[in-house]
Design goal:
55% strand; 24-stranded antiparallel beta sheet; flat
Length: 318
């Protein structure tokens, strides 16, 4: 019996020694864990205090009417949440701005997830913006900053713009629009990415959505590129996105993958029915390594690579 108790005491002492050794080996980790726990417990209420002290005032379901010095209603602003700050612009979340023209009739309605109001009273919408015109036309775009100039009736962005169109996405260096208009003006260099994979590069693009139309127009030199061809035009383009027809205006040059060239005037690109057909009723000139052909009309199917030159055709073979 005495021997058994002696063994138990020895095992207990041995266990204590092992625990002491373990605690000594891992003492740094224990200290770190304890410090981390203390820091975490202290930091949580501090972060909460910072969040609460970020703003001077918060208003839910915010609504305000803005008037000019002559007491003319300029616009109304609705927001889910309003935050005011000491040295920063007012911030709004989930915003709707209703504009009014000089006759006090409703103009465009702008919606965005975020907005700022500066001390000057200037409104800046950020991120994804939806503009609904007085005729019910919708424009969807994304930009870093879109300004509303209520006194002049102008909506403008001098930042890069991504515009969601009819089967296309358009990138521009800025935009302008009047609150009474259905026409949007994309400023500077413009790149149009089509769902077909084709791209169009141009400048200063007007987007017309009047009477249900989806028309894009530019008077600047343009470049159309697809997997089959590259086409340049000197005098701009007209695009009907609903019919999927693109008119390249003025002198036009088509360069195919094989390196052959075709020059003509006022070219129509028909992309309806998922095709890519080039047509012109103007004088055309086709050149390759082996042939030089002139005609009064042309028809080229880029998918099948079949070219038809029609009406007073003159060919020279080498």
């Amino acid at each position: 019996m005495t021997l058994f108790q002696t063994k138990k005491i020895r095992l207990f002492i041995l266990l204590i020694i092992v625990l002491v050794i373990i605690m000594w080996v891992f003492q740094d980790d224990v200290r770190k864990f304890s410090f981390f726990q203390d820091s975490l417990e202290q930091s949580l209420p501090i972060k909460k205090d910072i969040r609460e002290s970020d703003y001077l005032e918060r208003i839910d379901n915010f609504y305000i009417k803005e008037y000019s010095s002559a007491q003319v209603l300029l616009h109304t602003i609705k927001a889910d949440t309003y935050f005011s700050f000491n040295n920063s612009p007012v911030k709004l979340q989930v915003v709707e701005v209703q504009t009014f023209n000089k006759e006090q009739k409703e103009g465009a309605i702008l919606k965005s997830n975020q907005a700022e109001i500066h001390k000057s009273g200037q409104i800046f919408l950020n991120g994804e913006v939806n503009i609904k015109t007085k005729a019910g036309v919708s424009h969807e775009l994304e930009t870093e900053s879109l300004n509303i100039f209520s006194k002049t009736g102008l909506i403008k962005s001098s930042k890069k713009v991504s515009y969601m169109g009819e089967g296309v996405k358009i990138f521009a260096q800025g935009m302008e629009m009047n609150i009474d208009s259905d026409i949007m003006y994309l400023v500077g260099n413009v790149k149009i990415l089509e769902s077909s994979g084709a791209t169009i590069e141009t400048k200063n693009l007007h987007i017309f959505h009047e009477m249900g139309k989806k028309l894009y127009r530019s008077q600047d030199e343009s470049l159309y590129t697809s997997k089959n061809v590259a086409v340049t035009s000197k005098e701009g383009l007209n695009i009907d996105m609903k019919l999927r027809l693109t008119n390249l205006l003025g002198d036009v040059k088509i360069i195919t993958n094989s390196g052959s060239e075709l020059t003509t005037f006022n070219l129509l690109i028909d992309q309806s029915n998922d095709g890519e057909i080039f047509k012109s009723n103007s004088s055309s000139h086709f050149q390759s390594n082996t042939v030089d052909i002139k005609s009064k009309k042309m028809h080229y199917d880029a998918n099948t690579k079949k070219l038809k030159l029609m009406d007073k055709v003159l060919a020279i073979y080498e």
